[in-house]
Amino acid sequence: MPEFRIEGVSLSGKAVQGVISADTMKAAKERAQQMARDRKFKLSAVRARSGFLYRVKKEGEKKPIDGEQKAFSKEEVVDALSKMGYNVIYVRKKLFESVGKVPQTEVVSYVRVSADLIKQKLPFNEMMSLLINDIENKTLRECLRDINQELKQGKDSEKTFIKHEKELGKFAAHMLGLASKSGNMADIYESTAKFLERTAEFKKNLKSALIMPVVTLFILFIAVGYYVAYIFPTTAKLFAKFKIELPPMTKATLKLSDFITSNILWLTLAMVIPIVVFLRFITTEKGRYLFDKNIWKLPVMGNLLHKTSIEIFCRVFYSLYSGSGENIEVIRLAAEACGNKYMESQIKNVALPLMVEKGMGITEAFEACGVFTKTAISRFHSGAETGTVKNTALQLADYYEKETGYRMKNAIDMIQLAISMIIMVVLTALTLVSSETATLKPKPPSSGWLIPYAHSLMRLLF
């Protein structure tokens, strides 16, 4: 998350300075103004932490050194370089601050390698330095460098990681931040790595199950539309020109072709506008909530997505659960990590208030929110009675991981079979129409037009 420095003057005339994080400059100014009102000081400036390009040279060296440094002002960079003994040639602000997106595979690789190195008892500072030097993605490398520097300065690890949740992902940032503060860093890194690997595998399978069939159907739709609208009418109208009666399928297809070509603009808008509106709607808070609420009702895939959300919740719950009163926060974090806004909302707004305000047990609260399966409720009930809620959560996560993995393979096979059947039906229909058209034969021309020429020829001869 971008950082901004607040500068101001207190009522006594002393300089006030602080650093905040915000998504945009507008949000940073609003937050700074609110802080100025609450703490009673006059706000003078809000400066964004930006990138600066510099060129310096040391005494006795021929070649200058070029580099890049983030700071709140040009003067900070100049002072820092001067104190290091460099002669500053120039320092200028970067015109374009391009923040590249970190691929999910890079984050998964970083967390997995970190978990393995921690298991090998490698000191955290050495591990971070090793990874910073080896990671190729520039954005992730700069992110880890900033995290390492702030941790060395003694800053709170949770806040440090959460500042970079855009690069690492919300779940990974929260988990890794908590790992540095907890006494079981190795377990939390291992659980986070397994979760990220599982999520990446699930998304890969989901794309295989849905995206490729959708693309195949889209291409088939375009090809059929082009055939019906442009290629078929050329042949069919040729027969109509000679007043040849068209068979039923050919006639119906020709009418469909005329309808498509005469209303192509409206048909395109009728297909595109709902898709654009839907995609725009699900990017909103309410749209995402309603989408996640109803996606569980989909045949085949809905049940898989539901159980996957429960699996993720249970895995995060297991990683952070300690059996103490602080587990309200653990349940909240697990709800945020589950990947379903409806499930997250039900747990936060139904289950947690019942636990906090009415003292209800975990099983009763989870059952009241209506987002857990009967199997999950039954297992949590058994775990609560025997005092093994943490292990029960892990068992549920492993059970649903195996079940959804197996069912996902079956779902992919079913979807691919359905797509193949649709393609077969469409191609069969096109073949039948084309074959029917191919059987048409023009009527032989009438011989009546030869009679006048025969009479003329006879007069000439006789």
Description:
The protein has 462 residues and is mostly helical. It has 19 helices and 6 strands. The protein has helices at residues 25-39, 74-83, 104-119, 124-134, 138-152, 157-162, 165-168, 170-181, 185-241, 248-262, 264-281, 285-295, 301-320, 327-337, 341-357, 362-369, 374-386, 389-438, 451-461, and strands spanning 3-10, 15-21, 41-48, 50-57, 65-71, 87-93. Helix 4 packs antiparallel against helix 5, helix 9 packs parallel to helix 18 (389-438) and helix 15 crosses helix 16. The chain starts with a strand and ends with a helix.
Distance between the termini: 108 Å
Class inferred from helices and paired strands: mainly alpha
Give the SSE string: EEHEEEHEHHHHHHHHHHHHHHHHH
Indicate the overall shape. Answer: extended
Main beta-sheet annotation? 3 strands, antiparallel
Name the strands of the widest sheet in spatial order. Answer: 2-1-3
As residue ranges, the low-confidence spans are none
How large, in whole angstroms, is the Cα Rg? 34 Å
Mean pLDDT: 80
Helix count? 19
Tell me the strand percentage band.
Answer: 5-15%
Helix content: 55-70%
> How many individual β-strands?
6
